[in-house]
Amino acid sequence: MVTQLTACNEQHSKTKVEPDSVATTQVTKPTLPDSVTKFIHKPPVYDSTKKYVYLTFDDGPQNGTTTVLDICRKEGIKGTFFMVGLHTDRANKGHELVNEIKNSYPQILLANHSYTHASDRYKYFYQHPQMAFNDFLQAQQTLAAPYKIIRLPGNSAWVRNNEIKASGLVKPVCKLLDSANYNVIGWDVEWSFDHKTANPVQSPNKMLEYVEYAFAKNNLHTKNHVVILTHDRMFRLPEYAKELQTFITLLKQKGYVFETIDNYPNLKPF
Question: Which end of the chain is more exposed for a tag (fewer CB within 10 A), N or C?
């Protein structure tokens, strides 16, 4: 971000000014509003003795998004919401909810999960990479997402500093996103849901086992950093919201550090 400096206009006079009457003009840096300064990103500092958890929630705004946001706030943990532009336009008070999430930074991060979610026609979507690229650009504008961070619908791929790790199907759009200086975030561990009921499949204890196994076997994209994929709608009902709270409690008891995905290692600068 380039900061503009403002200086006073010089006033010229024909009258001779004595040296002891010359005033010094000071150039001051304007104070930026909080809405701007909060998104000036500072390079993260990691503790090599700690293990980091990136809890991510996909597909909002939808039924369940507000519940998840409230849980994150109540538990005092950081989380990232990968949101869909079309859902924002269609949901009741969708834009208000998106703004609430965005304004919750640095505890909560809003990120880009496409505009159409590929209309759930993933193969067709990725076989037309320019169309898919434009879809992400539309979402970035609709969401007014603060950083160039994307998760692909229905596919785990990674684009970071000097890295593109993607299947053949999605690599063309990943290259376009890379050229536009976007980061693409995949995941290491997924909390699955039943596609008929949208209810969680695994228990909180089973999810903890998955996370601990990933750390123990270094089955991770980056050592000591685990990205967990979930979906907002999984936790829309009280009994499943309680499961999310239980899972967060279990992670806390293990001493894991919660972070937002903008602090994941080796991302391109914002």
Answer: N
- Encode 183-195: b = buried (16+ Cβ within 10 Å), e = exposed: bbbbbbbbbebee
d(C-alpha 85, C-alpha 107), whole Å: 21
Q: Is 106 left (phi over 0), alpha (psi -120 to 50) or beta?
A: alpha
Asked if 143 contacts 112 with a C-beta cutoff of 8 angstroms, the reply is yes
pLDDT digits 0-9 by tens, 194-212:
999 999 999 999 999 999 9
Contact between 52 and 257 under an 8 Å Cβ cutoff? The reply is yes
Say how far residue 118 (Cα) sits from the centre of its chain: 19
pTM of the model: 0.86
Please name every residue paired with 229 in a beta bridge, in sequence order, or none if there are none.
Answer: 56, 190
Give the H/E segment covering residue 68. Answer: helix 65-75
Q: What domains, with CATH codes, occur in the chain?
A: 54-263 (3.20.20.370)
Q: Which two tokens stand for residue 197?
A: 């009921």
DSSP 69-99: HHHHHHHT--EEEEE-HHHHHHSTTHHHHHH
**CA atoms of 197 and 29, how far apart (whole Å):** 55
pLDDT per residue over 180-195, tens digit each? 999 999 999 999 999 9
Strands (E), the chain: 52-60, 79-83, 108-112, 149-150, 158-160, 163-165, 183-184, 189-190, 225-231, 257-258
pLDDT tens-digit profile of 257-266? Answer: 999 999 999 9
Query: Residue for token digits 């980056």?
Result: 222
Phi, psi of 84 (to 5 degrees): -105, 125
